[in-house]
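S.,

As promised, the nickel (II) ion run. Input:
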Amino acid sequence: MSIRPILIHPDPRLKKACAPVEAPTDEVRALAEDMLATMYDAPGVGLAAPQVGILKRLIVMDCNKAPEAAPRPMALINPEILWESAERVMSEEGCLSLPDQYAPVERSAEVRVRWTDLDGAVQEETFEGLWAVCAQHEIDHLNGVLFIDHLGFMKRQMITRRMVKLKRERARA
Ligand code: NI
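Predicted complex:
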């Protein structure tokens, strides 16, 4: 298991639609384990494969953030949203590919998601709260969409300029 470097926006790999995973091979399972380790290390509540440079439809998440809550590491292969609630919620989002940037984004309050797990079984679950927001955010990544794409042009440009500067500083360091 290893921590993988997380791509920082702007990066063309974060803007691509990802290809379906054909089968949960050992390679896919190893990638999911690396992604979970990378996510917990960051720390974050979700991570999508394109964020580590792999353009495949795989996401991981664990939104049980409270210290007393048991961890629930999840890996979702080829996740799709089957249904979303008409009720919408606004919440502050961030992203490991946009360090220290947060902005309110409106999403569906609940979503029903179908995916394949690491053993190849098809799963379905209705998510709510932070889990629902996270699932929508991570599935967006698989379609080359970042949370800032839900913001107005000015706000998106401002955050993008900050990230360009951050990358320049990191490259110099
Ligand atoms: Ni993200």
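The mean pLDDT is 97. The first strand starts at residue 46 and ends at 48.

- D.
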